[in-house]
Amino acid sequence: MQQYLTEGLTLEEQIGQLFVAGLPGLTVTPEIKELIQRYHIGGIVLFKRNLQNIQQIQELTQSLQQIARDAGHRYPLLISIDQENGMVRRFGDSTTVFPGNMTLGAIDDPDLTREIAQATGREMKALGINMNLAPVADVNNNPANPVIGTRSFGEDPQRVARHVAAMVQGYRDTGVITSLKHFPGHGDTAVDSHLALPSLPYTLERLESLELIPFQAGIKAGADSIMIGHLYLPALMAANETLPATVSPAIVRELLRHKLGYQGLIITDCMEMNAVAETIGVERGAVMALQAGNDLILISHQYTRQKGGIEATKQALQAGEMTPQAIRESCERVLQLKARMLSWDTLPTNDQLAIIGQPDHLALRDRAYALSTTVVRDTPQLLPLSLAPEQRLLVTILQPSSYTFAADKTQATESFVGELRQRHANIESVVVTAENAAESMRGIDRRASDFAMIIVVTVNANLDHYQGEFVRQMLQYGKPTIGLAVYNPYDLLAMPQLGTYLATYECTPPALSAAAGVLFGEVAARGKLPVSIPGMYSLSS
Description:
By secondary structure, the chain is an alpha/beta fold.
């Protein structure tokens, strides 16, 4: 006779295991303590607001686990985070800065990707974080995508699939729970689901030929969970309901569970994103997501909504809108995963923090970034730079008007200027924003003759019109000009006149250090474009 892990748990305890909640600060709050003790929530999600340094992070996770243990939880909490690396790294610089997905796609070495996941996983485990809401399995084949971009491994579904599988394997090697996202694929959208509901207007045949390929590879590699994206798929969902896939049985149960045969845990993206919160509402959305077949409901921010989602679920059960059997099945999947991956006996100790930033990890970081910089073109052959000491180099750093909510907004461009000055002292740098662009241009205009060369650093210029216009004006000076895209590589679309153009895929110190080395000929540029630049460059093989 089969033994169920849910046996002996009350229905309220089972419901609680299906919810993952965030908290506002660096320490345990009375509200999160109540959610663990009284409402029996099974998971916590951490964000940058919760993380200060490695000692504080470990103390926070230890405190949360102790509360759960004292409250009688059979298994430790799932403590999750979005540590995608690159530009989505919640730890900031507290842990080793490893390349993000598109950087790894430009290197295109799945063995290296697996090593990066292993090292990231080791550092996460030392901090007491046992679940990474990664890897991103989206195929970024839309240059106008405002939310995925460099979070994807690239445009080719087979390349993305190879790296997704390698990353899942790397995290599994270190015992970190993985989550493929954002099912069934957020790459070919032009709307950020943090702000509104994106639509993916494709048939199942198209999804099977492109979007689903990396998810299938990740499932085969042993992905522990899959996150449903807040997307509307009119070809697969009911025509009379413009709702997110998160609450659609057609996507969650029929496509993922039945057609793809996925048996693992299914988790929602945050239910407080506007694609849900501004349409059906967070509390009602939590009920509908469970009815659709999700196992874990992610409510990242507000206590009232977290508590409200749990209470709404209880009311739906009382009203007969869902059955205790459905709750038990989802809870069983949660507990099976916890029983397999977590133990009260293996929580990290203080001495394990020594693994963070250890020499092997730093060497791996440097080896990876040295392979990442891409020289897209250099028709005037400006590289490598060879400047006489008296020649003045102007570096203009264009700041974006906005970022996706998912991205880390820390810019490392000051470190880039520092890297350049180590190689050529005669540098002037100007930080340009949409607000000061006209004034900055007037200042440069007065002194244009002083500069022998210009480097223009751009961030998502193809989506940020002022940047392209600024660069086009700079080119009128006739000075040798180099463009460096430090985020999405599509910036060349906004400034096609540029003859020399490089891409780093992320604005992190090690990525920019590697780019400085390429500019001055110290290292060869080995990265290959993992996406096409429409009308200009096809996908690198």
